[in-house]
Specification:
This protein is α/β, with parallel strands linked by helices. It contains five helices and 18 strands. The chain has two domains: 117 residues, Roll (2,3-Dihydroxybiphenyl 1,2-Dioxygenase, domain 1), CATH 3.10.180.10; 155 residues, 2,3-Dihydroxybiphenyl 1,2-Dioxygenase, domain 1 (Roll).
Amino acid sequence: MPDFRYRRLGYVALNVSDLARSGAFYEEIVGLQPSGAALAGERLYRCTQRHHDVVLHQAAAPGLRRVAWEMESADDLERLERHLQSLGMRTFDVAAEECAALGLARAVRVIEPHLGAVFEYFHTMVSAATSYVPTVTRIARLGHVVLATDAHADTERFFLDQLNYRASDRIEGAVTFMRCWPNPLHHSFGLSKGSSKRLHHVNFMVTDIDDVGRAMYRLKKHDVPIVFGPGRHPPSESIFLYFLDPDELTVEFSFGMEEFPEIAPREPRLLPMSLQSIDYWGSVPDPRFAAQGVIAPLTEPA
């Protein structure tokens, strides 16, 4: 088992078709705070005291641009990089200018071989210069990212055996919930079994159950499609609400989540494939749920 350690899900970068429209949505409807601009016109947003939690990038095909993970130390980042290279994977150093714009000390990127997704790894992100003040939603953190794949078994095995993730629970033939070890959250990453490789959804964890309730009525007021929930997930015990952004990418608000100890955690459970394993309350997903989201290729020069 690899010995590098993660701190957390670092940030998610999304491709959007209209930067101004999506920026307004994530600020006014979701409740993120603008945090400046990066290179190539990217806009940064945050829901914590960190430099940023979300990056929006204008592109023709909306979806996932990259997922970034924070390692516990510079040594962990180096161990991870060496391990990836030992597997024959090419790593790309993020240029100093881009690291500075993203508030990172050092970062590397790699193409995950089964998903084709860009994963970024870093060890330090600076804090924002000003305080984060919640607005329409009291967001606690960027919670997790779930990707769909048509090679579920191979992809799961790679994350567990080579990237030092831990399985928390599985819904048979449907989804694997993973935590980046030793982060305690039930899942900061998920793999959904699908007919194609795509972004499934992005989650924000909120401070109180009332944030979920208020969000539901705010979304309805602004004619934002709610595509699943409200409900309660049996695997993580999270109360959830899923909705669509302007590009029909799926976003989730959730409250509450099981946490795992680093030493002697419980074994992952295998839940049957049924709606009862997805929601205690009986909500049924809309067909638009998790249907859109292209996984973009790496854009670094060869």
